[in-house]
Design brief:
It is a single chain. This protein is α/β, with parallel strands linked by helices and 294 residues long. 33% of the residues lie in helices and 21% in strands. The chain is built from 10 helices and 9 strands. It has a 7-stranded mixed β-sheet, sandwiched between helices. A two-stranded antiparallel ribbon has the order 7-8. α6 runs antiparallel to α10. The two termini are 36 Å apart.
Length: 294
């Protein structure tokens, strides 16, 4: 993918989030890789390989799918964000479709990957083979209501999986183990101090110990183990950190309550404790995953 970032149009509404293309590219080029240790840890534990037929719910711009496909897995991704999905296609299916590329292709993921618009997922392959692994790598647990759409998505996906298939849910670790939580609190304060006061959906809240277990229970899944993974957020500079963090959508409530330039300014200030002498930004974080069975 090209490293060029799309800039905002001059005169854009300062109270609105950045345009969808910019947000998606910032996510793909800056932020998504921060979760790579989480992907690898889950795939190691699940022994992801050629026998894996994986459905990725909320697949974003496709990095987790690309890692799984490199291990030999057949992967299907579903996402409602069209811009992120377009970037996933550029990574996984640049000029070929499902089962269209030969095994010796220079892009080995092409003949093992498929991407779908959000909606009811399709069976794992043209032969209707069921999935044996369902993953949700968009971490929940630090924004109000961030799991509401996940339960119905899981209920729709589970019937397409084999009996006893594995489902992996992911979430933020305890706030005291996540440096980023301190920065996210800035967004919460901005929403709370808005005049008139705002009660925005998606506002930050502390992660709860049983967030993932609650989702599993509501989706009818049986927990079967869990783990924690260190995922430090590292950025080349404060500007990159601000773009990456805002691409997550976790600051959208603050942008709606105030304006984008003010949010960018206050996030940049909140990042100063994590700035190192060479100008880079380093924030240790811990993420949690819950292994479930259908």
């Amino acid at each position: 993918m090209t490293p060029t970032l799309v800039r905002n149009q001059l005169g854009a509404d300062a109270s609105a989030p950045a345009d969808a293309g910019t947000r998606a590219r910032d996510w793909a080029e800056i932020q998504e890789r921060m979760l790579a240790p989480l992907y690898e840890a889950v795939y190691d534990r699940m022994e992801v390989g050629a026998a894996t037929r994986m459905l990725s719910l909320g697949c974003g711009s496709g990095l987790a799918m690309l890692v799984a496909a490199a291990r030999g897995a057949h992967v299907t991704g579903v996402d409602s964000d069209r811009e992120r999905l377009a970037l996933a296609r550029a990574r996984l299916l640049p000029d070929a479709g499902w089962d269209a590329a030969p095994a010796h292709s220079a892009h080995p993921a092409r003949h093992r990957a498929r991407l779908l618009e959000d909606g009811r997922p399709a069976p794992a392959g043209a032969d209707g083979a069921p999935y044996n692994l369902i993953t949700v790598f968009e971490p929940i647990g630090c924004a109000a209501g961030d799991s509401e759409g996940l339960v119905p998505a899981l209920r729709s996906a589970v019937p397409l999986a084999v009996r006893g298939a594995t489902v992996v849910l992911t979430g933020w670790g305890p706030p005291e183990r996540c440096s980023t939580a301190a920065v996210l609190r800035v967004a919460a304060r901005m929403v709370e101090s808005a005049r008139p006061p705002r009660t925005e959906p998606g506002r930050w809240r502390p992660t709860l110990r049983d967030d993932l277990e609650d989702v599993a229970a509501r989706a009818g899944l049986k927990p079967d183990g869990s783990g924690r993974v260190s995922c430090p957020f590292g950025y080349a500079d404060v500007g990159s950190a601000v773009r990456g963090l805002l691409s997550t959508g976790l600051f959208d409530a603050a942008v709606r309550a105030t304006d984008r330039s003010q949010v960018e300014k206050e996030v940049a200030e909140a990042l100063h404790p994590y700035r190192r002498q060479d100008g880079t930004v380093w924030m240790p974080n811990v993420f949690r995953y819950l292994v479930c069975v259908t």
